[in-house]
Design brief:
This protein is mainly alpha-helical and 207 residues long. The chain has 8 helices and no strands.
Length: 207
């Protein structure tokens, strides 16, 4: 069951990312090379690639990603993708047709699937709060990258980090807020995981 779900989720993830790439190339407003760089400048894309890669490895080389905490980190990342989109970005555009389908896969369906998988298969008892600082390296490195590249190309993938429009002070405040929210969500997942793990043990002991 676990391997079958991993393979299915990997296929869904790669389809969504590939379809988004094709759509972005077809509807590009910049040269192909710049469009490709911009494609890989979206946290949504990078994180969905991470998700697809994780489930691909889990399907064929599970020993590489078996360590407790890896799935939780991936789940927190994709949860951030879904949450920011639903509460901040959804109202900013109205996709149609295939773009709508891909958009929902990347921001809604895949986050939900990953959370369900985390609920079913993560070794929650073995995940620790001490792992969280390592998990935050990825989003912080991403923010540093887009701010540096944006200062050169003047392209910022999200309005809340668009220095050209909102200024560097507001951008840094927004970035700090996002990192703080990430810490809070990660802490929530670890706490919830431990709680449900404890409840499951208590239920098994009493049965």
């Amino acid at each position: 069951m676990k391997k079958s779900l991993s393979l299915l989720f990997a296929l869904i993830g790669w389809f969504a990312v590939t379809a988004q790439f094709v759509l972005m190339i077809e509807n590009r407003m910049a040269p192909v090379a710049e469009t490709i760089i911009r494609f890989f400048s979206f946290f949504t894309i990078l994180t969905n690639i991470l998700v697809a890669g994780y489930f691909t490895l889990l399907s064929f080389k599970p020993a590489i990603v078996h360590k407790p905490g890896i799935l939780t980190a991936v789940t927190v990342y994709i949860f951030m993708v879904g949450s920011v989109y639903q509460f901040v970005l959804r109202a900013t555009w109205k996709p149609e047709g295939l773009q709508l389908i891909v958009d929902e896969l990347l921001h809604t369906v895949i986050p939900v699937l990953v959370i369900i998988f985390w609920t079913m298969y993560e070794n929650k008892k073995a995940v620790t709060f001490g792992q969280i600082p390592k998990w935050v390296i990825y989003p912080v490195a991403y923010l540093v990258y887009i701010l540096i590249r944006g200062s050169v190309s003047n392209f910022y993938p999200y309005p809340f980090v668009n220095v050209s429009e909102i200024g560097i002070t507001k951008t840094l405040l927004n970035s700090a807020a996002l990192v703080l929210v990430f810490f809070m969500i990660a802490t929530l997942f670890v706490t919830a995981g431990r709680y449900f793990s404890k409840k499951r043990q208590e239920g098994a002991a009493s049965s």
